[in-house]
């Protein structure tokens, strides 16, 4: 047990050094914010991403985010453009600016004029073409639940409503609509299992390749990339027959992200995904080992395992969610026990309905199954969150309270580990006697 929870000092110290350096860089930059709007023009930029939110067009290119209320012409990823407008430093935009900085952008520009001057075929443009086709297929197949299915399949949250986001927050299941470890494990598991007729090594390789394609297709967001790296390092540990040290990988990986972009610490999905991984790694086995003693049935142990995963993930993530959203769900264990199996069950049928879209009877069978499962997913969460005291809303959030909470959690965890070490020494001494 001690080996399983051993935190490698080298990777931890590297993480702390990079974290402190990132904080210093951010603090230093905050003292030199440019609040002026400057008119700029550029030519030959390539569009990396396009979003339509709140009746506004958001065009992402290089280190710019271009915004306009209306764009007459059709643009797509890979287009070369020339444009002009008023540029604004993102640090002058408060929390939203910090969020965009966490994604690697430096400026926002209100578009005065924009013109397409060419097109470049690239991996990004090909993936965007596939995404657009998948959007059309999903909208055709699932008229009632296209928004949530778009989110689950291709990470398109364009039409997710504020009411839905609030529902997921109150239920404690926001991780389900953010492509991260849960989805990577699902996709990898699906491709690993459907290739059962191959050798285990070949199955792992195929699952790794298809999961990589999925990560790129969904935009290669930090949580998805993080989860994929954890997955391939786990597979590598199996091939190399080495012990898998999730803490070392996690600390070094997060340090690497901060080196690339110090502002990544403002990316909610990035921070939440790392916290949940560390939290499960630290507390799952402790909780499960103490509770499994009262459970003997295998099915009950499976359910208990799911409960323990949810409980352990909450320990480090609840304070962070509280500080960012002012909501703490008191029913997250129950909602996750219901929602995670439902979405896991729906995933293969979603993929099959897309694959067999040209065969009406087969397609309709799969669609009906998905519609029923998604209906249960929404209904169960609506009922549970309507119960009194199912969640707590906080009008005021305290950073001091969050810091103290984390200090207490880490102190108790360290104390528990030391007690286990002392217990092992005592047992060894008694055995020698």
UniProtKB/TrEMBL annotation:
Cellular component GO terms held in the UniProt record: plasma membrane
Record-linked InterPro entries: ComEC_N, Competence_DNA_uptake
Domain ComEC/Rec2-related protein: 152-414
Localization per Swiss-Prot or TrEMBL: Cell membrane
Transmembrane feature ranges: 12-29, 176-198, 204-232, 244-260, 266-287, 299-321, 327-349, 361-378, 398-417
One matching Pfam family: Competence
Name listed for the protein in its UniProt record: ComEC/Rec2-related protein domain-containing protein
Organism: Peptoanaerobacter stomatis
């Amino acid at each position: 047990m001690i080996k399983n929870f051993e935190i490698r000092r080298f990777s931890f110290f590297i993480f702390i050094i990079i974290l402190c350096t990132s904080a210093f860089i951010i603090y230093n930059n905050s003292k030199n914010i440019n609040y002026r709007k400057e008119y700029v023009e550029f030519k030959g930029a390539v569009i990396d991403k396009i979003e339509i939110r709140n009746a506004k067009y958001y065009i992402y290119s290089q280190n710019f985010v271009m915004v306009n209320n209306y764009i007459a012409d059709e643009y797509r990823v890979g287009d070369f453009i020339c444009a002009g407008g008023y540029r604004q430093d993102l640090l002058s935009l408060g929390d939203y600016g910090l969020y965009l900085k966490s994604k690697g952008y430096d400026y926002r520009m209100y578009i005065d004029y924009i013109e397409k001057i060419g097109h470049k075929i690239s991996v990004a443009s090909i993936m965007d073409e596939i995404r657009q086709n998948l959007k059309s297929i999903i909208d055709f197949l699932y008229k009632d639940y296209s928004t949530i299915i778009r989110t689950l399949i291709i990470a398109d949250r364009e039409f997710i409503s504020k009411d839905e986001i609030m529902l997921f927050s109150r239920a404690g299941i926001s991780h389900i609509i953010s492509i991260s470890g849960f989805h990577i494990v699902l996709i990898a598991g699906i491709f690993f299992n459907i290739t059962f007729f191959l050798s285990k090594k070949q199955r792992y390789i195929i699952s790794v390749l298809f999961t990589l394609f999925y990560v790129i297709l969904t935009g290669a967001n930090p949580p998805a990339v993080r989860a994929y790296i954890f997955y391939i390092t786990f597979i590598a540990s199996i091939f190399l027959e080495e012990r898998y040290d999730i803490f070392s990988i996690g600390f070094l990986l997060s340090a690497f992200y901060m080196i690339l972009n110090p502002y990544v610490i403002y990316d909610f999905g990035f921070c939440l995904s790392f916290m949940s991984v560390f939290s499960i790694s630290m507390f799952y086995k402790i909780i499960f080992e103490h509770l499994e003693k009262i459970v003997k049935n295998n099915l009950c142990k499976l359910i208990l395992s799911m409960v323990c995963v949810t409980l352990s993930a909450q320990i480090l993530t609840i304070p962070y969610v509280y500080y960012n959203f002012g909501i703490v769900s008191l029913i997250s264990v129950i909602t996750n026990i219901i929602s995670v199996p439902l979405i896991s069950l729906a995933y293969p049928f979603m993929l099959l309905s897309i694959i067999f879209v040209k065969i009406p009877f087969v397609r309709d069978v799969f669609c009906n199954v998905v519609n029923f499962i998604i209906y249960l997913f929404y209904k169960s969460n609506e009922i549970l969150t309507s119960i009194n005291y199912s969640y707590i809303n906080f009008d005021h959030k305290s950073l001091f309270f969050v810091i103290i909470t984390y200090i207490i959690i880490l102190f108790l965890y360290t104390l528990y580990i030391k007690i286990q070490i002392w217990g092992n020494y005592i047992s060894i001494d008694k055995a020698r006697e």
